[in-house]
Amino acid sequence: MSLKDRNEKEMYGEEQYRKIESHLLLDNRPSEYLEKVGETEEFNHFPFDLLKRMKKTEQSPKYHPEGNVWIHTMMVVDEAAKRREQSQNPQVFMWAALLHDIGKPSVTRFRNGKITSYNHDREGAELAREFLLVFTEDEAFIDAVCGLVRYHMQILFVTKGTARAQLKEMKRSVDIREAALLGLCDRLGRAGVDIEKEKESVMAFLQVCGVPGKDFDFI
């Protein structure tokens, strides 16, 4: 590939990144644009292929009856779009929603008759950073997005009291309100969910974190 072709390709990637961000921040249903762009040639190449891999990554039907990781992610992005104005930083929040499960394709396995994706939060934080570094050098932005990706599973771990709960580390790394907001969207971005039950889970998470859930209008 010539230098000219490489530069044009990089410019196109940058343009696509900005278009995606615009739709994440402005659309009522960002998934509609993402579904279209996800079928383009650009999504066959790095770093957008990190997103396209989600289309071939299945999930446990017990927890994700809606289907693969991409379907779930599109649902989460649309849920996040409903609540982005409640975020302290909608740009960070919406990118975190899109990238929150970017680690699943790398770690998903079929074990003992079950589909698992252990440590996809840790893997996802690393891949989200790799993705974003292609387009921006804004370290504060990248750290904020990757922090939410890294700790997006903590609502489950903390409320269940599992060994994977990392309350102190999470509090040092992310804003609890933002983590709760993303966690709510993650839990609602599935088929057949009990909305009130999921809200109760988020309230329980906030309570354990020592944060008054009554102060948060997204609950």
Automatic annotation (TrEMBL):
Domain HD residue range list: 70-188
InterPro entries: HD/PDEase_dom, HD_domain, HDIG_dom, tRNA_CCA-adding_enzyme
One GO molecular-function entry: transferase activity
Coiled coil: none
Keywords: Nucleotide-binding, Transferase
Pfam families recorded: HD
Keyword Amino-acid biosynthesis tagged: no
Top-level taxon: Bacteria
Designated name of the protein: Putative nucleotidyltransferase with HDIG domain
Lineage: Bacteria, Bacillati, Bacillota, Clostridia, Lachnospirales
